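Before relying on records like the one below, remember that each one covers exactly one chain. Contacts with other chains, cofactors or solvent are not represented anywhere in the record.
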Amino acid sequence: MPSVVVASRQRSLQEQFKEALALEEEIIDKQRQAEVQQIVSSAREQLRPFASTVMHPTFKPGLMGFLRPSWREMQTVYVNTGGAGHIGFSLSFALIDRDGSGELSSSELQVFEATAQAHIDSVTNSLMNVGVISALLLSMVWENSVQLDEVMDDSPFDENTIEILQYLNLICKQILLSSSLALLFVSARIYTSMTVLLPTTETRIKYMNNNKKLFSAFAYSKNMLVVLVVSFALSTLCSALICSGWKGMIALMPFVTFLAVMALVNKGDGLILHDLHAMAKDCCAVQEK
């Protein structure tokens, strides 16, 4: 009899343990689902100012957006929302809840998992590339960042012009140096947080969402690239003029090539932004209905 009683108690304890585990898993699933629903709802709310602002048919983001009165409101909203990168980021999560009910089904949760992992992989790969490029650029600039170029014999420029070119070259090198250091630090900091410090998919997505301006400025913005290219082009031009005289004007070729390529690539930016605006309006209109 005692052995039967002990076995019965063991089975009872095992069943209670299994029930406790099942209850704990159910609570964790509900908490996780609530976190995902909060992320999706937050993404939709962040899109609302952008979606409710009237976009001029010819609007293009940038400095001209602040200068033209008809573009100024959209440019301000565009910047506050985090730029095209963060608008697309928020839109991809807001569209998961197609009916705007605020409750996600099991299939929508699977879509969230796939979407979140795709964003995490994309951002970490981008940060790694930015870090490697900035480190290479830093190694190239560091050695000559405080040195003045030697002047060629029989230079066509007077001493004042040469001195201006030397110091302009030095300033451009310092801009390259500081920009490379900033990109290296930010990319390493965010990459460490994304891969080591944040344990779950939800916390990584929240981190990306809360740091939208930081991601927009360093990971997805073209402005830092333009600063680097212009500084590098001016530095190269100044060095060429100092060392080779007027023959150094040929150093403008890489810069002119960059401007031509950037003009061709930027043609599609306006169309992409208008498509994002239309999708954001439809997404926010679903919940209002």
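The chain has eleven helices and no strands.
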